């Protein structure tokens, strides 16, 4: 096997973008799956599939299997973890990866800092980066009293994105009735929650690659719609956006403060009406919507891997991309849009009128999009498999 081999861990929307990118760049791409089939295994760009124990059921068994695999496969010189589950696992078990294998992710202190939202808000405050007022609350009584002082609307979210929070990323409270109606009790597993003033605006995903705090590449995307009616959740409709000098400067400040090395994505809310900007979070990984910059000429999976090669001395220069990109190109995810609609139906958030409006909007978005986050005429099977799963599991109503 002459091509360099890379093992990609995690099966997410952006995994498919990474597989297509790296296979086209000449890598032998190894996807993975546990006891369940994965949609990424059906990509024409997947060279082979490694089957292993479920990482969430037993991290120890997964790590042991990974060690055996890497010992047997000396051709694998790179690992690209996609999701936070995989990133945290490799961070905790760095000893399990041979020194000959480069892990494509930021350094452990950077990851730890980025995943602590309160810590990042404190850093933003030190750097003069605007963010909404926030409070830590440790129990339901403290939550009630702090909401009373902060006022409505406000936002509640966990400090750690992997901590269970009713299946939500965040919760927006608009009236006093919402607190008891939406969160009647303290969610188990949370040592504390973040209570924050509500900020209006569009979410901007600022994708970047940095070398020891210096930005090498930057791409800005506006999220036009998500899979949640309130605008939280995952993006289903995004648009390439003209680089903002202000947001780019903020990303640079954060990268320098964190001594950031590798790929990441900082998120801000931007209010067009008043011009206000509010820092949301920074993710130490490829963003779920990295297909948008990929289709606009900014291949972040390839740049992330090239940077890892540079860090270990295989390349003499770090990757850069400062070329202009097309503004206003729209990327959509119909699959996630349908899932969002179905989940809203299960939560009884939609009446017939709003349900029809959602589906109409989904269809119009699908038809208007310049490209799709997973669908490709040259590589149709992964997306087809996902839709087949929807039908087989009866997610769609009759």
Give a quick summary of the entry.
36% of the residues lie in helices and 23% in strands. The chain has helices at residues 13-24, 59-72, 84-92, 108-114, 117-127, 140-150, 176-182, 245-258, 291-295, 300-311, 334-346, 352-368, 381-392; strands at residues 5-9, 28-33, 48-51, 76-81, 102-103, 134-137, 154-158, 171-173, 193-197, 202-211, 214-226, 235-241, 262-270, 277-283, 330-332, 371-372.
Give an account of the 3D structure.
The protein has 398 residues and is α/β, with parallel strands linked by helices. The chain folds into three domains: 99 residues, Rossmann fold (3-Layer(aba) Sandwich), CATH 3.40.50.20; 224 residues, D-amino Acid Aminotransferase, Chain A, domain 1 (2-Layer Sandwich), CATH 3.30.470.20; 65 residues, Dna Ligase, domain 1. It is built from 13 helices and 16 strands. Strand 10 and strand 11 form a beta hairpin. The longest helix is centred in the last third of the chain and has 17 residues. The radius of gyration is 21 Å and the shape is globular. The chain starts with a strand and ends in a 6-residue tail after the last helix. 39% of the residues are buried. The mean pLDDT is 95.
């Amino acid at each position: 096997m002459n091509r360099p081999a890379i093992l990609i861990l995690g099966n997410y929307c952006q995994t498919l973008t990474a597989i297509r990118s790296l296979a086209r760049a000449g890598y032998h791409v190894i996807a993975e799956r546990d006891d369940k089939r994965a949609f990424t295994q059906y990509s024409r760009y997947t060279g082979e599939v490694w089957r292993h124990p479920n990482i969430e059921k037993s991290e120890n068994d997964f790590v042991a299997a990974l060690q055996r695999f890497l010992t047997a496969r000396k051709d694998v010189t790179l690992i690209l973890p996609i999701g936070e589950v995989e990133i945290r696992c490799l961070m905790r078990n760095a000893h399990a990866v041979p020194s000959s294998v480069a892990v494509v992710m930021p350094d452990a202190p950077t990851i730890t800092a980025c995943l602590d939202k309160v810590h990042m808000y404190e850093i933003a405050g030190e750097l003069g980066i605007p963010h909404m007022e926030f409070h830590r609350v440790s129990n339901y009584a403290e939550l009630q009293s702090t909401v009373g002082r902060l006022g409505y609307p406000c936002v509640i979210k966990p400090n750690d994105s992997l901590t269970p929070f009713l299946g939500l990323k965040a919760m927006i409270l608009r009236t006093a009735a919402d607190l008891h109606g939406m969160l009647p009790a303290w969610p188990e597993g949370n040592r504390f929650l973040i209570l924050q003033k509500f900020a209006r605006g569009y979410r901007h995903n600022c994708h970047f690659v940095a070398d020891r705090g210096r930005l090498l590449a930057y791409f800005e995307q506006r999220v036009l719609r998500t899979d949640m009616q309130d605008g939280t959740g995952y993006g289903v409709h995004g648009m390439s956006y003209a680089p903002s000098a202000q947001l780019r400067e903020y990303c640079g400040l954060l990268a320098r403060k964190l001594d950031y090395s590798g790929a990441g994505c900082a998120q801000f809310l931007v209010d067009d009406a008043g011009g206000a900007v509010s820092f949301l979070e920074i993710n130490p990984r490829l963003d779920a919507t990295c297909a948008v910059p990929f289709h606009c000429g900014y291949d972040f999976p390839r740049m992330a891997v090239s940077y890892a090669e540079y860090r270990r001395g295989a390349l003499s220069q770090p990757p850069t991309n400062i070329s202009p990109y097309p503004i206003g190109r729209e990327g959509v995810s119909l699959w996630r849009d349908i899932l969002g609609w179905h989940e809203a139906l299960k939560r009884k958030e939609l009446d017939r009128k709003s349900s029809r409006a959602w589906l109409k909007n989904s269809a119009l978005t699908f038809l208007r999009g310049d490209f799709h986050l997973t669908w490709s005429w040259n590589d149709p099977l992964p997306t087809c498999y996902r839709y087949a799963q929807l039908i087989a599991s009866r997610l769609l109503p009759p």
